[in-house]
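hiii, so i know i said id send this last week but things got crazy w the move. better late than never?? heres the sequnce for the chain we talked about at the cafe, plus the structure i predicted for it. fair warning i was half asleep when i ran it
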Amino acid sequence: MDTEKLGIKVIPRHVAIIMDGNGRWAKLHDRPRIFGHQKGVERAKEASEFALEVGIEVLSLYAFSTENWARPREEVEFLMSLLEDYLQRELPNMLNKGIRLHPIGRIHELPRATREKVEETARATSKNDRLILNLALNYGGHAELVDAFRVLAHRVAEGELQPQEIDEALVEGCLYTRGQPPPDLLIRTSGEYRISNFLLWQTAYTEFYFTPVLWPDFDRGEFLKALLDYQKRERRFGGV
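okay and structure toks below
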């Protein structure tokens, strides 16, 4: 895709998206919440393909948080089933287009069938190199940092590491996103102005883009608006 024809001259390497508003979208259309989630999955696929087309290297999608277990059991079960079906259906497309699934979060706590499908898809796409798709599942920024600190604490306890040797690089090396560039742009849909425990460490110097558009309505045109807004930003990373 010729991005300059779209007006995009600056392409962020890593874009993170908080996909919010499925339930409200369903309510506006007088449909059950699960209908909003189904539409949201379609938008996630579209966002992944658009990211691939414009040359984004990493796309992080906040799919299911550690707090989402508090939702009604029927809704959680539907979301897990929806995820399994999506991965089963989309695997050929991921392989064909070079999309590598990289699940982030406490994957081991997912229901067995869901965990196995996620891990199977990650293994099958592990050699793809056109787009890394970070799918945040049972993810929480606090939990990620706790997990990283536990790894470092274990290394200290084993005598492999001295506390004074711990620096930012070592912490980053223990994060779920280790080896990846930090997000250049974080998008949140649905009009909320918070990051909801998403990529807390990684977004220290990320540019934020908030839109009132509900996630099921966040199409390629809306994604393009976010990218065009991003390229107007002057990023100084604490400098002048």
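btw Residues 14-185 form a domain with the Undecaprenyl pyrophosphate synthetase fold (CATH 3.40.1180.10). thought thatd interest u
miss u guys!!
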